[in-house]
Specification:
With 261 residues, the protein is an alpha/beta fold. The chain is 41% helix and 15% strand. Strands 1, 2, 3, 4, 5, 6, 7 and 8 form an eight-stranded mixed β-sheet that branches.
């Protein structure tokens, strides 16, 4: 289910962003890559952005002009917790009651077990990220628009198949790739399947997939607790920034080399 987005201009945007999940590690990775792309000249903040779990934090932050320092300054709640609203309260410290028409987030509806793509023009971004990041067993479901939601990663780590229609879609996938072991291989397989479906619907569009390197995977480690280690996440950010910077320069270089239509 996708909420009807707010009216926007008809022409395809040049870029759209997809930010995947991955705990505190995922926030650091997606934020670092996004900042690197932006520094290279990719108009990340002006691109429609779909976030899942950790990626919804980055999508919201980039749209509002916030930095990784704004996010890392927030306290990571003790997990597990049953306290309702703990993530929404935390998110409001960064995002307030802001909404944004370029931001959407995937979340799993508790009642139907179906994925919903929540629209940032209709709901406060703090509620979107709280719903999309409500990991079962660690955090309670979060209510948006009268429905309770769980972490969007329960359906898909990236929800690439729901990406906005743009000339070029950039997917930043913290949990995808063989360097992350069995989880990365499984996530990567599902991502590629979703991406094939998206490409069938939009054959004229280009896509770029950005995933962690082996050095970055070593920082996360192979234990799930590593995904929520704030100290490791801080070490990851500069590597992710450099990766985004390199890929951004490469993408723009290729665009300049294409012959004029």
């Amino acid at each position: 289910m996708t909420e009807q987005p707010s009216p926007m201009s008809e022409p395809r945007p040049p870029f759209a962003m997809v930010y995947g999940g991955g705990g505190v590690f995922g926030i650091s990775y997606t934020a670092g890559v996004a900042a690197g792309l932006a520094t290279a000249g990719i108009p990340v903040a002006a691109a429609p952005a779909l976030g899942t779990s950790a990626g919804s934090w980055t999508a919201s932050a980039m749209a509002l002009g916030l930095t990784y320092d704004d996010l890392v300054a927030l306290d990571v709640p003790s997990l597990p917790t049953r306290r309702p609203g703990v993530l929404a309260d935390l998110a409001r410290e960064a995002f307030g009651e802001s909404r944004h028409p370029l931001v959407s987030a995937s979340a799993l509806c508790l009642r139907t077990a179906h994925r919903h793509i929540l629209d940032g023009a209709r709901h406060a971004l703090a509620d979107l990220v709280a719903a999309s990041s409500a990991v079962p067993g660690l955090l309670p479901p979060h209510r948006v628009g009268g429905r309770l939601y769980l972490d969007g990663g329960m359906w898909s780590a990236t929800s690439v198949d729901a990406a906005a229609h743009a000339a070029h879609v950039i997917i930043v996938a913290p949990l995808s790739g063989v360097v992350l072991g069995p989880l990365g291989r499984t996530t990567g397989f599902l991502l590629e399947r979703e991406l094939r479906r998206w490409r069938v619907r939009h054959p004229e569009s280009e896509t770029t997939l950005i995933r962690p390197s082996r050095d970055m995977a070593r920082i996360a480690g192979f234990l799930p607790t590593g995904m929520f280690d704030k100290a490791r996440a801080k070490d990851l950010y500069p590597l992710a920034f450099e990766q985004g910077l390199r890929r951004g320069h490469l993408l723009l270089g290729r665009a300049q080399e294409r012959p004029a239509a």
